[in-house]
Amino acid sequence: MKRVKLIVAYDGTAYCGWQIQKNGITVEEVLNTHLSRLLGEDIHVTGASRTDAGVHALGNVAVFDTNTKIPGEKISYALNQSLPEDIRIRGSKEVEPDFHPRYHNSVKTYEYRIYNSPFEMPLCRGNTYFFHRKLDTEKMQAAADYLLGEHDFAAFCSSHAQVRETTRTIYRARVLTEEEQPAGEETGGRLIRFQISGNGFLYNMVRIIAGTLIEVGLSKYPPEHMKEILEGRDREQAGACAPAKGLTLLGIRYEQTLADQLLVCNERMHYSLVQKEIPRKHEACLIIFRCEKELLADLIVRMTKKSFRLGAKRFYVRHMETPVLAGELAPSRRNRYEGGEFFTAGDFRYVLDHEIWQMDRDLRADPPGQPDPLLVLPLKKEEVPLFCGMYQKCFFGMPCTMQLSEEQARDLVWNGQECTKREQAYLVWQEHVPVGLLILKKAAWDPDGLLISAMGVEGKYRKKGIGKKLLTWTANKAVALGKKRVTLEVSSKNKRALSLYEQNGFFRIRSGESRWYRCDDRADRRRIPENSEKS
Predict the structure, then answer these.
(1) What is the pLDDT of residue 509?
(2) Taking phi first (over 0 means left), then psi (-120 to 50 degrees means alpha), and beta for anything else, what does residue 339 get?
(3) Is 439 strand, coil or helix?
(4) Of the chain's two ends, which shows fewer C-beta atoms within 10 Å, N or C?
């Protein structure tokens, strides 16, 4: 059994959309019929974008499973021999068995075409919306700019659509104009193309946005009203749904690698989704800096589903302003589970995994003694790969920790100007062998403190007193810099480190104010069906 990916182009005029329906023929039905006949199997394709009736496509994506011996790249040629003229396969190839056109990280691009002229143009009547009143494209572009970023697009979704989540991210929205070439006499016509790219679209979302932009182009309301529509989340405030024939799915781009993190900051929320460790450790971390209370549960559920879909097995969430999420999302009772807190959001359960303790050693009350012999040297450029490899070994087993890239490590390299940077990295040596690492940081919020950003000893050298010696060396370093204390943060799960720090003069000065909750992706957990995406 192999999985084959198709790039599908079609003129949607004669079809009732992509998805199979009882009231008429669809693109999916035609593909199923012709593939089954070609391969001698019962074939069912799965499409990336289930376009609505009358909507066109240049690059929709579909996959199907088959036992055929025909090479994947040859199927497009054979299939095009029998397909109707308004459907064509622009390419085919075999893909990984787990590739899913809707669940893999992707960017979709749509285009809505408007022929703006006093008279219609027969040559573009099939894929372009004719509009005779003159439109101000500069105002339309100004309004489209408000769509960029992550927003709740409830106002741009058909009211009868059955969707749970209406938040989407728009990466690009632009209004392009092509003036018509005069044919004997000046005709005054022009083609307006509205292109929009995002991580997903709601039912009729692009067509409603296009209808709203047309009203802005007519000066029915100013471009700034687009922001008010987004914030109001009321379908009645947005414009009419533009006709389907003007909409074309241009293509879908699948991301080959995950971005290290997604950072979103707007008036309603500010958060970071760390995806860097999904391929290596199968875990993702959501750090919420700020979020309106009514959006909090939806944000957590949405990021959980996204992370599991991308391959994470464990999902961690932390709220910087509301550390006790169990109390925030279940205010009527204090949820307890197997001796620990938990809360539920959607169909997911989040259990308190660990807390982050802040520890402090007061160097005035507890001055350091003479350091034991230990060679601690600033990191050099040629040692960056060694440093990164040791960092991964030291912290791989700890949750919510990320690997250090060589690019990041190069920013910590010794350059002859020690202590002028906020962060400085060191390698710990014993008998000419690197045995540990240290990263010190000047804390902007505490000018009298020196922060241990990271301290680790490689596995086979642990329990040999190196950690104690390194803490004493750091305390003396702080005194030499004129600092009054050394501070650090440690996970409550790291019992060995907690004991080491307490034995060397550190006290817990703040706990429970930074809690990580965990949700596991279990095979027996009832999954939430994905929202249908139509435009």
Answers:
(1) 81
(2) left
(3) strand
(4) N
Whether 135 and 243 map to the same domain: the answer is yes
Active site residues: 52
Residue 175 covered by a domain: yes
CATH number at 240 reads 3.30.70.660
Residue 396, pLDDT score: 80
- End-to-end Cα, the chain, rounded Å: 33
pTM of the model: 0.79
pLDDT: is 23 or 526 the higher one? Answer: 23
510 within a domain of the structure (yes/no): no
Secondary structure of residue 13 in the 3-state scheme? helix
CA distance 446 to 146: 38
Phi, psi of 90 (to 5 degrees): -90, -5
Domains identified in the chain, total number = 4
Q: What's the CA gap between 269 and 290, in Å, rounded?
A: 5
Q: Name the band, by pLDDT with cuts 50, 70 and 90, for residue 511.
A: low
Evaluate whether 238 touches 104 at the Cβ level (below 8 Å).
Answer: no
* The predicted structure's pLDDT at residue 324: 82
pLDDT tens digits for range 142-198 = 999 999 999 999 999 987 767 778 889 999 999 999 876 555 455 668 899 999 999
Backbone angles phi, psi at 237, to 5 degrees: -80, -25
**One domain, residues 240 and 314:** no
> Which pLDDT score, from 0 to 100, does residue 186 have?
57
Instruction: Assess whether 110 and 237 both reside in one domain.
Output: yes
Give the span between the Cα atoms of 169 and 414, in whole angstroms. 40
Neighbours of 106 (CB within 10 A): 18
What is the overall mean pLDDT for the chain?
87
Residues 70, 161, single domain; the answer is no
3-state helix/strand/coil string of 254-320: ECCCCCCEEEEECCCEEEEEECCCHHHHCEEEEEEEEECHHHHHHHHHHHHHHHHHCCCCEEEEEEC
Cβ atoms of residues 269 and 290 within 8 Å:
yes
Residues with Cβ within 8 Å of 13's Cβ and at least 6 positions away in sequence, in order, are 54, 56, 86, 126, 245
Structural domain harbouring 303 = 261-356
Kindly tell me if the per-residue pLDDT of 417 is higher than 60. Answer: no
**Strands 314-319 vs 283-291: parallel, antiparallel or unpaired:** parallel
